[in-house]
Amino acid sequence: xxxxxxxxxxxxxxxxxxxxxxxxxxxxxxxxxxxxxxxxxxxxxxxxxxxxxxxxxxxxxxxxxxxxxxxxxxxxxxxxxxxxxxxxxxxxxxxxxxxxxxxxxxxxxxxxxxxxxxxxxxxxxxxxxxxxxxxxxxxxxxxxxxxxxxxxxxxxxxxxxxxxxxxxxx
Length: 170
Hints:
By secondary structure, the chain is α+β, with helices and mostly antiparallel strands. The chain is built from five helices and seven strands. A seven-stranded mixed sheet has the order 1-2-3-4-5-7-6.
């Protein structure tokens, strides 16, 4: 398993993983129409733009030359006074989960953010996400629950954080 910084050429693979993991995770949990309308092509353009403009820090996980997961992050986007960094996205293909890949991706992101002077971080996760306990397994602490409009309705989002990202296990 190789964890490396993402390149613009990775955007098509990242977008397919993004759409597939949403469909795998949320099929019976959020409106089907939202999942059906997800587009790898639209998502690819968004990732390409973000990577080209250096708007995000991003790493991919490769297994035998095939990208099986990725993480993106950067500065916290909602003005939190305690946490300076944020995990924007973390996705690992279902068949590659439970192998430590997610933890390695988060650790790589945290290390890169530390080099930029960002030593605390949070992540927002839909409460319906059955994998949200993963963040506790890498020493994230539950911070609060927020409500966000998503897929045409208000949904609960749980926030997990690390006051010191050197405590992330991976």
